[in-house]
Amino acid sequence: MSIEPGDVALLVMGGKKFLVTVKGGGTFHTHKGYIRYDDIIGKPWGTVAKTNMGSEVLVFKPTTADIMEKLGRRTQIIYPKDAGFIIIKSGILPGSRVLEAGSGSGSLTIALSRAVGPRGTVYSYEKEERFLKVARRNVNRFGLGNVIFHRGDVRHRVDERDVDAAFLDIPDPWNALKAVHEAMRPGAVLTIFVPSYEQIRRTCMTMKKSGFSDPEIHEILIRQIEYSEERTRPATRMVGHTGFVIFTRKILTDY
Amino acid sequence: MSIEPGDVALLVMGGKKFLVTVKGGGTFHTHKGYIRYDDIIGKPWGTVAKTNMGSEVLVFKPTTADIMEKLGRRTQIIYPKDAGFIIIKSGILPGSRVLEAGSGSGSLTIALSRAVGPRGTVYSYEKEERFLKVARRNVNRFGLGNVIFHRGDVRHRVDERDVDAAFLDIPDPWNALKAVHEAMRPGAVLTIFVPSYEQIRRTCMTMKKSGFSDPEIHEILIRQIEYSEERTRPATRMVGHTGFVIFTRKILTDY
Amino acid sequence: MSIEPGDVALLVMGGKKFLVTVKGGGTFHTHKGYIRYDDIIGKPWGTVAKTNMGSEVLVFKPTTADIMEKLGRRTQIIYPKDAGFIIIKSGILPGSRVLEAGSGSGSLTIALSRAVGPRGTVYSYEKEERFLKVARRNVNRFGLGNVIFHRGDVRHRVDERDVDAAFLDIPDPWNALKAVHEAMRPGAVLTIFVPSYEQIRRTCMTMKKSGFSDPEIHEILIRQIEYSEERTRPATRMVGHTGFVIFTRKILTDY
Amino acid sequence: MSIEPGDVALLVMGGKKFLVTVKGGGTFHTHKGYIRYDDIIGKPWGTVAKTNMGSEVLVFKPTTADIMEKLGRRTQIIYPKDAGFIIIKSGILPGSRVLEAGSGSGSLTIALSRAVGPRGTVYSYEKEERFLKVARRNVNRFGLGNVIFHRGDVRHRVDERDVDAAFLDIPDPWNALKAVHEAMRPGAVLTIFVPSYEQIRRTCMTMKKSGFSDPEIHEILIRQIEYSEERTRPATRMVGHTGFVIFTRKILTDY
Prior knowledge:
4 copies of one chain form a homotetramer.
Chain A: E1 8-13, E2 16-21, E3 27-30, E4 33-36, E5 48-50, E6 56-60, H1 64-71, H2 80-89, E7 97-101, H3 107-116, E8 121-126, H4 129-141, E9 147-151, E10 163-168, H5 177-183, E11 184-194, H6 197-208, E12 216-227, E13 232-234, E14 237-239, E15 244-249
Parallel strand pairs in A: 7-8, 7-10, 8-9, 10-11
Antiparallel strand pairs in A: 1-2, 1-6, 3-4, 5-6, 11-15, 12-13, 12-15
């Protein structure tokens, strides 16, 4: 696999990371000189390029976490730590059909799209046109053809049926439980992401009456460890909280 | 999708979970009575079965996290919180070819196998025959046909070339860096899981000289939140530490 | 300072700790033999005694944390990690007059008593006779003469006035805010310990209307690090949650 | 107790805190107007003052934690969460004689000084004249008469004998174990604060050979909880690591 025009590349330079789209004839400027994309096109991923001033730039194919970290800068809610856990807890596999609302920046949309692969589908609902535009642009940038965006309010209506997993990241998930329940196949996992305790409470209270199993609630924390030749230690700064992750499953009571 | 003989099912009963293989004519006994598998065969996942004493048993298709939680009971090292993060950080996608050592109980093997799907492959190395047997049995139980087990020592030799990602969970990963480096495609992510600081240190010191990029080191913590009608609070007990996750990438210095 | 009859001693033996009262003629039995108290009486603290079978027993004067750890075994709510933070955040000094409710096992009572010293006083309220008895016995065991116990309900009445700090560890602290406010000197810190989010909410909502400043809410977590010659790592098990600590101060609005 | 000239006061204004020395004739300026100190002198602590523009300013007597938080701004290493735990774990009581090195900004010096009270003493060693000056100024500002500063290197010599507790916050504590051991009374607790794992290791390895008991190592984490009328949640940002706290005791092996 070699670097081709149109590819999105992760450039790593002295601990800093940049997500760029490689274009023939283009250049990437850093504070230590620039690299010409033409010099890396055709080379394998993992190449160490050099700027005109001699600084090393590592060129990698971005992972899902790389994409989420860079896209999320401004509107990020779901971090890789949460996205990885969500995918592994919710039964999402290559080929799955997954429902998501809201699309936000498209960061989780991309993670879901990559996890289900070309034979799966992500249905992503978003009320706000401006977010939808951003999410769509981000998804397209990575050439992901398995995402279907809907401008719409998941609290009122979901078109799909029998989805294999559903994910809600909206302020009032309790109002969407009914419509989402209808869209899910029996036994499917619904994941809900909320930042506050009041939202946990209200969501879980409503859930009981809506055909879902008892919820499991988790919070994932991540600590970075700093390593140098002299010393190893947890980083001074850390993100203290992003949100709580609630998992439940659609049950078939009256079958 | 309905429940069929041979399927592995997750039974949930009053907060307890059981992973069982559904067999025609068989029964599952609990302290509140039993259910006959014949009564659930042919029904959809998500069904609420009842024991002969009238207690409810929820029948779900297990997710990757369900499988890891139940399999790992005795030898668990990698938890779902870590596995999800590893997959999303290491560029593993449907179709990827992934190297793993050691196989352990096969818990992470299953997680990787499910993430890469039928078009991908997991190459799993294990030195100890007794672990290999357990891992193989566990993988077979879930009908995963994309895992190739090797009885062998990854520190001395890896047969594959150009794998898309590699994962090491062995006590002395620094001794395997050379062989694993050869097996990886340039730019691929190597993930190393170690429980102690001394292992971080020794691994990272060796890494620099072995054609890998600067490592990123993380620790993932998970807190369970207890919810009842009366109150919401973090659980009293938590797992304080499983291990540290080191990520690095193969670089191509002399291309 | 030497070990005298009547002293409470901390015996440490192979990682295990015991809190014992030294009595002339008495013995302390372990699974590796016994020590005679007569053999350590008159010796300095820090002495390494030996059982009749030759095992080493270290004899220390217990610290406040040692006492709390051993007393709290059954009914512990406030841990040393919380007690230390509470004392340093609430303006408690040698000589302070401190109000506490409820007494519980007397574990925090002892910590407060030791922090304010012989020239200070702790007023400890407890509704339940059986707890009061335990608390009183524990406090007496350490010869602390500066604690005044009240059997009474702090929600209805507090006899003292102008206390320098107050501490509440009762299920419904919001019901005690009025009586405690009256008992505090202006500017004094009130600390409230609650395990659940619902209690935070209800307490803070009532606080605003009761002459207290905006609350600060914290949660203290403690990780133990295991060290051996081979490796250093966080302990596998940890206490995930004890409670939240709310700090506020009495304000004088209409002075 | 009323506010007097020369007192250090904590002013709280809309969530912001300021530590000021009250001076007759002086003023305190904020972005919402100023207050005249003459208007609060003679009033009780806990008073709500008003700026000339009508904004409320709460006037409190600072607690130990308030002082540490404000002093530590630039050079802070020891936080209140750590200081409280250290005091309660190390047997420090009113009247104790405590050894400390280095003085740093004097932040922990003040915490120790306040905990031991007027009948106790803190011996604070500092190699660097510039730090000593800062520490001395900070201690004097709070009128604490029980601190004796030494300009000196605790690794080479400690003048005191039989101190009740000792605290080390220097980069190479292993080099000070011998001198500090001589200065401590048998059974006394030595607390060592280090940020990195390498320092834990080297300290603990040396400790064994130096007449100290097996160490206990802890890390204290603190999460702030944000409360508003709408929602309660952990704060987004948190301090991920300050340091590890090692506790050990001087033992008398050859008594």
